[in-house]
Amino acid sequence: MEFTITQLAADKQTSDCLLVAIYEEKQLSSTATQLDSLSNGHLSRLLDEGDLEGKIGQTLMLHNVANHLPNVQAKRILLVGCGKKQDELSERQYQQIVSKAFTALAASNAQSAVSFLNEVTLKQRGAYWKVRFAIEAVQQARYQFEQFKSKKSDNRRVLQTIEFYSESDDLAKTTQALRHATAIADGVKAAKDVANCPPNVCNPAYLAERAQELAVQSDFINTTIIDEAQMAELNMNAYLAVSRGSQNPAFMSVIDYKNHPNPQAKPIVLVGKGLTFDAGGISLKPAAEMDEMKYDMGGAASVYGVMKAVAELKLPLNIIAVLAGCENLPDGNAYRPGDILTTMNGLTVEVLNTDAEGRLVLCDALTYVERFEPEVVIDVATLTGACVVALGQHNSGLISPDDQLAQQLAHAAQQAQDKAWRLPLSEEYQEQLKSNFADLANIGGRWGGAITAGAFLSNFTKNYTWAHLDIAGTAWKSGAEKGATGRPVALLVQYLLNKADSAH
Ligand code: BES
Ligand code: MN
Ligand code: ZN
């Protein structure tokens, strides 16, 4: 799909379809008013007939426009209900409107369309955000994962270009929005594709191959792969313990993106949990929905997607992304409850549950990245079911001892509408991780599980500024709509866009 900006008014457009806003109580947008007067009130008469109430997300496709609106050159007009004219739309309502409009458009035989939906009013959001959210919503609605279906869906897929009308005053902003949104949408798609990939194909080696591919695609990227022998030399014994039950060896990919005007600039480090399957190990998970544990690499998938977007945008930053690939299975050689592991930073951990494996992989990855002397480190992980209990599926959990970093991430989440909510991290939680036999236990009891997981990680992040995103509830959807969401790619790219903005 191609997206462009146009400055031609509706009557001059020769497109296959115009997307035009209509409001409740038969109110027309200014483009609709213009078309209405060009056609001696044809649109008003349609609304009088009552076929379109203008409610949010309602659509009415007018075909064969030349017959009824002789002064309009476009072939079709899609009237799009946008609610009450005086109301400001929420971001979510706007995204719903765009999705519905796109679905109606895709069902027609139009190859091209021009959107005049920039006329609606969005709470506190100008032209930039309307284009940005529209492109993201269209790509979201279009996404399908059919790599493993022998018959692809028979969508006609004739639609090829969507143009967004922009006033000249907004041209710079809308052009930038288009650039940002396409990169973010590409990153989200890349993240979804790897995350949806089945665990017999997407194993730790597969993640490493994707990481190496990035270096081929971008001149700014170099990728290094750390294998199990190197992990052993580095004393990454917690990470290795988790991997021991699997026949698929662990690989940790280090994706080094360098494009800061000052090559010495400290990097922003992103670390993604990459459990390509988490059966729980000896502390085996129940059978129901265990297939969804292929998504336990959602952190790595999103970090990978972020790097795709960053490379496409050529952001003037230094960024290092780590995909901590691993598989957690029960086996005769698997690690056990009761085992005591010596982590890379020297702290010992008593394993009380082999299903709390993410923090064991991450603690060594987080120690490893100290060598980059990072400006900040952000880890992204489908870490705890407890986070889903706490926040549901709409907000990722955000934990950080650093208020400034926490605020920057919360702000980016709000801007990008890829929501995150901060959880507290105070000393008391640390006490839940006491072990009778080692420095730390790998679980902290029943209460506040998302936080005790964060508290566990905080023992390994003392030498830099750090934040943790628990995406257990947000990385994928279950049930009829089962599939990866590509979250939190938009949040993280927004954070990096803000960083690039403030630094230069
Ligand atoms: N990958 C899971 C977390 C998870 C569970 C994400 C369900 C999404 C849905 C993680 O490795 C895990 O198993 N965590 C345990 C921790 C517990 C043993 C302290 C959990 O949340 O149950
Ligand atoms: Mn687990
Ligand atoms: Zn897990």
From TrEMBL:
Pfam families (UniProt xref): Peptidase_M17, Peptidase_M17_N
Lyase found in the keyword field: no
Cofactor binding: number and manner: Binds 2 manganese ions per subunit.
Active site positions, chain numbering: 285, 359
Record's subcellular location: Cytoplasm
GO biological process, one term: proteolysis
PROSITE patterns in alphabetical order: CYTOSOL_AP (PS00631)
Main location: cytoplasm
Residues holding Mn(2+) 1: 278, 355, 357
Residues annotated to bind Mn(2+) 2: 273, 278, 296, 357
Cofactor: Mn(2+)
Reactions accelerated catalytically: Release of an N-terminal amino acid, preferentially leucine, but not glutamic or aspartic acids; Release of an N-terminal amino acid, Xaa-|-Yaa-, in which Xaa is preferably Leu, but may be other amino acids including Pro although not Arg or Lys, and Yaa may be Pro. Amino acid amides and methyl esters are also readily hydrolyzed, but rates on arylamides are exceedingly low
Keyword Hydrolase (UniProt): yes
Organism superkingdom: Bacteria
InterPro entries: Leucine_aapep/pepB, Macro_dom-like, Peptidase_M17_C, Peptidase_M17_leu_NH2_pept, Peptidase_M17_N
GO cellular component: cytoplasm
EC number: 3.4.11.1, 3.4.11.10
Gene3D superfamilies: Leucine Aminopeptidase, subunit E, domain 1 (3.40.220.10), Zn peptidases (3.40.630.10)
Function: Presumably involved in the processing and regular turnover of intracellular proteins. Catalyzes the removal of unsubstituted N-terminal amino acids from various peptides.
Record family assignment: Belongs to the peptidase M17 family.
UniProt name for this protein: Probable cytosol aminopeptidase
Lineage, opening ranks: Bacteria, Pseudomonadati, Pseudomonadota, Gammaproteobacteria, Pasteurellales
